[in-house]
Known about the structure:
This protein is α/β, with parallel strands linked by helices and 344 residues long. The protein has 2 domains: 2-65, Phospho-2-dehydro-3-deoxyheptonate aldolase, domain 1 (Alpha-Beta Plaits); 85-339, Aldolase class I (TIM Barrel, Alpha-Beta Barrel), CATH 3.20.20.70. Helix content is 34%, strand content 19%. The protein has helices spanning 11-23, 51-56, 109-122, 146-159, 173-179, 193-200, 216-228, 256-263, 272-276, 279-291, 318-334; strands at residues 2-5, 27-32, 37-42, 61-65, 85-87, 90-92, 96-102, 126-128, 163-166, 182-185, 206-209, 234-238, 268-270, 296-300, 338-339. Strands 7-8-9-10-11-12-13-14 form an 8-stranded parallel β-barrel, surrounded by 7 helices. Helix 5 (173-179) links the parallel strand 9 and strand 10. The chain is elongated and about 65 Å long. The mean pLDDT is 96.
Amino acid sequence: MIIVMKTACQESDVAEVMLRLDRSGLKGHLSTGVERTVIGVVGVISAVPDLRERLELMPGVEEVIRISRPFKLSSREFKREDTVIRVGDVSIGGDQLVVMAGPCAAETREQVMSTARIARAAGASILRGGAFKPSTSPYSFRGLGEDGLKILAEAREETGLPLITEVLTPEDVELVVRYADILQVGARNMQNFILLDEVGRANKPVMLKRGMSATIEEWLLAVEYILSQGNRQVILCERGIRTFENYTRNTMDISAIPIIDKLSHLPIIADPSHGTGKWYLVAPMALAAVAAGADGLMVEVHPNPDTALKDGAQSLTFEHFQELMKQIAPVAAAVGRTMAGKRA
Ligand code: PEP
Ligand code: MN
């Protein structure tokens, strides 16, 4: 349910409505837009008799609208304007196209530093890299942990690129927050509700990747966990889903990009590296994602993909990444976006 306030309402009217919701065992989330102020109501609304009718009688209330969709705070009904998230000099979700690039996992200082330098010079605006790696097999590389975070933070200092890195467990949030500019919640954790609650309480933007078997509705409901804890800085990331097709690692769901744009005010990033699993499919899917309206890309880059400890098959060499960045600019321009990063 959302409560649309009158344009001329008083602050005290809003406070009264919030108080009424609180007393009814519900929670109000305020969205102050350019055109209108709305209050999103979450909780068991059906348990409060005549709630809608009563709220409509309160001073300052224009109307009360039921949201039929199960997700609320992420919906366009709650907030019409796009959410734009500022990280350093970069804006995610506005007119810029943001490229997040870096290795799947931090392996060595040299590997991270050289990749970060190339990424920045080619026009990337955010550095990616994992220190805590989710792994399908317990025998493959699981990341350097805090040592990896230190290396990534050093690369951030040198290049000035903000850092996005994955947090795997609720217990690690406090540690990862100290190093990261954006917290990544991976596909395998999309429905780890305890972790979602925890990052929802963090004072850092969060990028939530789509679970490999998640519907768009399940994904947006997972986002609600973060938003309803008070963290409004959430980015979505389409990274491919499981289908019967096994030529590719995952099937990149390009249609999810315009669907998210229609349903939600949150920014949407595309990850063609995990979305395909094959390096030579990364560029075509990256261009398709930009054309489809993505706010940005996440791309894995490695100095020597053939010796990478993780995801080598889908990692771009420096040369291929530089080539991709040149191809992206005209496609971005064609859909009215400017590149967030500057090519050196
Ligand atoms: C990653 O970004 O390296 C990663 C593990 O992604 P996903 O959670 O999409 O598999
Ligand atoms: Mn990876």
